[in-house]
Structures are given as structure tokens and as C-alpha cells.
Design goal:
Layout (H helix, E strand, L loop, with lengths): L7 E9 L4 E10 L3 E10 L13 H4 L22
Antiparallel strand pairs: 1-2, 2-3
Length: about 80
């Protein structure tokens, strides 16, 4: 979308030691309009072995849970995509 609108997207990512999380900020600028979108958020990143697909844990999870994600890595909610 930015290319079709002649917009530019800029992203920054950094480690916030106070919160113990990675922070990310994305800005989309369009020459005629100016600042169009700002996204700011944070995420936790840990190296962990992935779960085996046949360990029985998949059947115990809800239907919306992603296969292979550890419980701590699953999001609070899922967005519907059409």
C-alpha cells in the first residue's frame, strides 16, 4: 500500500531494559498528507524449543491456538483475516 500512495514506512526496534521487552515503532508518511499511521508496541522474545506436533498438546488447546506455539507465546486474542 505505501508504494501505491507514494508513502514511506520507517520502522525502529530496540531493547527496553526497564520493561524487559523489545519495543517497535512504525511510522507511515505520505508527502501530501504527512503522518498517516503510527504503530507502537512491544514483544517478548525468548529462544525455546518448538513443541513436537504429535505430543498431544495440540488436541488439548483451543481450536484458535496456533500449532507449535508455547503457551506463553500465544497472543491474548486473534484477529480475523478475510
Amino acid at each position: 500500500m505505501p508504494a501505491s500512495l507514494d508513502a514511506k514506512a520507517y520502522a525502529e526496534q530496540w531493547w527496553d531494559a526497564a520493561e524487559g521487552k523489545h519495543q517497535i515503532q512504525v511510522k507511515v508518511l505520505q508527502p501530501q498528507v504527512g503522518l498517516v499511521l503510527v504503530y507502537a508496541g512491544s514483544f517478548d522474545y525468548r529462544l525455546a524449543p518448538s513443541l513436537p506436533a504429535n505430543d498431544g498438546a495440540v488436541a488439548k488447546r483451543s481450536a484458535t491456538a496456533a500449532v507449535g506455539l508455547p503457551r506463553y507465546a500465544e497472543p491474548d486474542r486473534w484477529e480475523r483475516r478475510v
